Amino acid sequence: DQQVKQNSPSLSVQEGRISILNCDYTNSMFDYFLWYKKYPAEGPTFLISISSIKDKNEDGRFTVFLNKSAKHLSLHIVPSQPGDSAVYFCAASGGSGTYKYIFGTGTRLKVLA
Amino acid sequence: DAGVIQSPRHEVTEMGQEVTLRCKPISGHNSLFWYRQTMMRGLELLIYFNNNVPIDDSGMPEDRFSAKMPNASFSTLKIQPSEPRDSAVYFCASSLGQGLDTQYFGPGTRLTVL
Question: Which pLDDT tens digit goes with each residue over A19-35?
Fold first, then answer.
């Protein structure tokens, strides 16, 4: 049973436009959320996080939005660049095992030049 | 800073053989994680060590899987005997402490069991 779901396996966006990656979760105990980016043949690298006390966190071109009532978060990349082409994993943590990240299956983003 | 180091990067073996994956965490990090990545299930936590002690091994799929951390700078994940369904990418990650410290991942080991 997937507690963290990324329902879009892939997404293509034109360079300069906005990329929106979505993530849904089912466990209301989750209170910390992260996005990791993964290039081929490399390990995932941390991108941005958000605590449940916030509904938005911004870092340069990357913004994560959290809608607790809908159990939904999204990652916005503006403007998208070809170097952003990668697999993006959403992860959630919280409750009794705060060290434990529950990852989604990932969304492959392709930014077209 | 060398980051998390994993070896080998690729492993191809035959069903029934023993496989050992190795990890060197970032120096000074007290927590170590082993993950498995598959298309169907994404990244799954297999086992978590803190200060070299296994804290949570609930993600280890079967008795065929075992992990050790004999010291702060080395960990192994062993599969014996290996099966084709074990084919996946295995990642090691480390973090500075417990809780929500950022986890830093190694490059992974791609395992293929024929």
Answer: 999 999 999 999 999 99
Using left for φ > 0, alpha for ψ between -120 and 50, and beta otherwise, residue B42 falls in left
- What is the four-CA torsion angle of B9, B20, B25, A46, rounded to 10 degrees? 50
- Residue B78 host element (H or E): strand B74-79
pLDDT tens-digit map of B57-91: 999 988 999 999 999 999 999 999 999 999 999 99
Tell me which amino acid residue A80 is.
Answer: S
Instruction: Evaluate if residue A71 carries a pLDDT over 80.
Output: yes
Nearest CB to A98; choose among B45, B50, B100:
B100
Tell me whether residues B43 and A98 touch, CB distance under 8 A: no
Closest by Cα among B27, B22, B15, B1 to B87: B15
Q: Say if residue A97's pLDDT is above 70.
A: no
The answer to whether B75 and B9 have CB atoms below 8 angstroms apart is no
CB atoms B104 and A103 under 8 Å? no
Q: Strand, helix or coil at B16? A: coil
- Closest-CA distance, B105 to chain A, in angstroms, reads 5
Residue B64: C-alpha distances to residues A12, B20, B79 (Å): 40, 12, 5
Pairing of strands B88-95, B31-38: antiparallel
